[in-house]
Specification:
By secondary structure, the protein is an alpha+beta fold. The protein has 4 helices and 5 strands, in the order ααββαββαβ. 19% of the residues are buried.
């Protein structure tokens, strides 16, 4: 027999609910169940944390690419907007490590791609190095004399060809602009004899870089010069 207990203040027309048997009452999770659930959650978090370095690496690479693509057009525009003879005069004042090439002073930029002014481009101070994130290396090729005999397929016009005979067109200079994520480190040890960043050395040093190329030409030919 089930006995219903009802308070006198309760409406007599609404019957009281019977008490549930002990076997039907809701129970809490056991300690073993909690441990299993925590183990599953921990395993999922370990897998997610393993993807974190990959994501950070991709983000860093994307930032390097974006900043490089902002620095390169600025340097290229400066070269293209400068009078041909002025660039050539500047090129001739730089130390040339190869008969066909010259290089300009390093240019430095911060994380946002803004140029960092340094007192000495060859050796920035410690305070200046803290601001430097990217180093731009600019290498150009000297223009040659016009010679119809050199207009053959046996001569190379591309910059990477340093050992073969070259066709250097008159009133035309080729430039390679390299933007390296140097983070304040000096990159002189990464350069080859032609003042070009060596990809093998840069990879070992952990210095990613991107290379761009442009050419500038004299605005018209000067027939009075050979």
């Amino acid at each position: 027999m089930t006995v219903n207990h009802q308070h006198p203040a309760v409406d007599k027309e609404r019957p009281c609910e019977p008490l549930r048997p002990f076997s039907l009452r809701r129970r809490a999770f056991s300690l073993i169940e909690i441990c299993i659930a925590l183990g599953i959650v921990a395993f999922a978090f370990v897998a997610l944390l393993g993807l974190l370095p990959v994501g950070l690496g991709n983000f860093s690479q994307a930032m390097n690419t974006q900043t490089s693509t902002e620095v390169y057009p600025r340097l290229a525009a400066e070269l293209q907007e400068t009078e041909f003879d002025t660039v050539l005069k500047l090129a001739n004042t730089q130390k040339a490590s190869h008969a066909n090439y010259f290089y300009m002073k390093f240019r430095y930029f911060d994380a946002q791609g803004q140029e960092v002014k340094v007192s000495n481009a060859a050796s920035p101070t410690d305070d200046e190095k803290k601001q430097i994130v990217y180093t731009a290396n600019i290498r150009g090729s000297f223009p040659g004399k016009a010679d119809p005999k050199l207009h053959t397929s046996n001569y190379f016009t591309s910059l990477p060809s340093t050992t073969g005979a070259r066709f250097n067109p008159r009133d035309l200079m080729f430039f390679a602009i390299q933007v390296a994520s140097s983070k304040g480190r000096e990159i002189d040890s990464l350069l080859d004899p032609t003042h070009f960043i060596d990809s093998v050395k840069a990879s070992k040093a952990g210095v990613p870089f991107r290379t761009y190329s442009i050419h500038i030409a004299r605005n018209g030919y000067d027939l009075t010069k050979p």
